[in-house]
Amino acid sequence: MGQDQTKQQIAKGLQLYQSNQTEKALQVWTKVLEKSSDLVGRFRVLGCLVTAHSEMGRYKEMLKFAVVQIDTARELEDADFLLESYLNLARSNEKLCEFHKTISYCKTCLGLPGTRAATQLGGQVSLSMGNAFLGLSLFQKALESFEKALRYAHNNDDTMLECRVCCSLGSFYAQVKDYEKALFFPCKAAELVNDYGKGWSLKYRAMSQYHMAVAYRLLGHLSSAMECCEESMKIALQHGDRPLQALCLLCFADIHRSRGDLELSQLKLHCLSESIYRSRGLQRELRAHVVRFHECVEETELYCGLCGESIGEKNSRLQALPCSHIFHLRCLQNNRTRSCPNCHRSSMKPGFV
């Protein structure tokens, strides 16, 4: 496969990916990787695979493609490609919570000789480093890195980067218990999405809504928290974003716990833990949470109000409404209701499910 055909196939994969046909896009890009002899094209398709696996929560695969990409960059002997591939290595390790490795790769990026990509990617390097420092609870260093990333964004008029930094600052201030700022920054991110994000991926809206939900809950504004979390979960479900689904599920559980729905919060937390341990292949911990999940279902006698089946069945997605009633997601989709089928409160936005 030559250079022109490689470009065409990469573009085809991008079109499929942007239309939410993720698996088909992955098939196209994997075939390019197998058949293309164009090193630049291979480098670009590896970048696509890194991003796609990141958004799907497949972080080990993300790291695998990042490692192959850096080998390709070394073959090309191009400093710009090296910088981009080291950044992808940093991001991969950040997602896997290997924060010391993340910081090391970020420092490698910053230590590379000046390149054309340095201005464009420097802010992203600082953002990734800030996220790693935050993961290690090194708050002063995290804040310094976020502020540096924000300066990059402002100096280069990079509103997409500014949006991402604002979301990370929301997480930062939530951890240091400055809840007003924890809300201010994701609200700013949401404004950026509304003003500039028509061509952006919906993940940016989902991220801002999730961080707003966390801040609203910490401030005690539970109805606003639920509304934002619903919006974020809606997008996460549409795009198969498993990591964001897990975060939203945890946020839902926190909201219900704040409302005093303790049994429901336990159920959601066991469901979340099951998903995490399953993805990591930790079978003993997985079995323990599956057993506890079903015990919680039996204890609370929770059943889908539409089909009558237990909500604890394997591989069934659930939807918790603001009124705290739970249904199978598929049942709500088939029923196409705009209010809770149990209490008939108008608690669902049109088209939410």
Automatic annotation (TrEMBL):
GO BP annotations, alphabetical order: positive regulation of neuromuscular synaptic transmission; synaptic transmission, cholinergic
Annotated signal peptide: none
Keywords from the named record: Metal-binding, Receptor, Repeat, TPR repeat, Zinc, Zinc-finger
PROSITE patterns assigned: 43_KD_POSTSYNAPTIC, TPR, ZF_RING_2
Gene Ontology CC terms, in alphabetical order: cytoplasm; neuromuscular junction; plasma membrane
Domain RING-type span(s) in chain numbering: 304-344
Keyword Phosphoprotein: no
A single GO molecular function term of this UniProt record: acetylcholine receptor binding
TPR repeats: 123-156
CDD domains linked: RING-H2_Rapsyn
Pfam families attached to this UniProt entry: Rapsyn_N, TPR_8, zf-RING_2
SMART domains per the UniProt record, alphabetical: RING, TPR
Domain of life: Eukaryota
Protein family: Belongs to the RAPsyn family.
PANTHER family for the chain: 43 KDA RECEPTOR-ASSOCIATED PROTEIN OF THE SYNAPSE (PTHR46574)
Name recorded for this polypeptide: 43 kDa receptor-associated protein of the synapse isoform X2
Native organism: Lipotes vexillifer (Yangtze river dolphin)
